[in-house]
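Changelog note: in this version the structure field was regenerated for every chain. One regenerated record is shown below for reference.
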Amino acid sequence: MKKIVVLTGAGISAESGLKTFRDSDGLWEGYNIQDVATPEAWRRNPDLVQDFYNQRRKSVLEANPNAAHYALARLEEKYHVTIITQNIDDLHERGGSSNVVHLHGIITRSQSSRNSNLTYPINGWEIKMGEKCEMGSQLRAHVVWFGEAVPMIEKAARICTEADIFILVGSSLAVYPAAGLVDYVPNGAPKYIIDPKIPYLGDDSSFIKIEEKATMGVSRIVEKLLR
């Protein structure tokens, strides 16, 4: 069974109504990311950061997978599919994909603020101040902040080296180290990029470019691959 590796970014979640800071000068829902998405922000004002992610989690739980999420899940009918996502929502899972690697964590889980390997399910949408892990430290959202290591990046790179087909959806290729994953895809493997604004790809002319939103472009590619 051929292996398809799909790298997804903000564009696929945006069509489900989830806002990102991708196109808004570093603002996310009106907040500067330096105030809500860094370890320094957490040390400076943990209540603000906790509330910010509680509200984002609420939005995620109220959102629904879109046609692109469902289409990618259909690829499992014929291929071994791994979704590597930069997104912190769970829409791929709810859309039916069974093998999802979250590079930047997943907002529907909490983690210890002392040990990021200690993660827990969340009842409802809120992590309260005073809720602690087994080590006695405050629980926070299980997301990778700017300035923190990306623990899943090596696993993702290995997965990319085994791709028979590679699909990039809704990513501006602006956030590293995730953007560097395309360099691990074997030469000769068909590579598709789906985005209404195709990012600069340097000297790489091997991508098949589909300049459409995720819901349209992914559905079209999936139909082609399932024929």
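Spot check on this record: The first strand starts at residue 3 and ends at 8. The mean pLDDT is 93.
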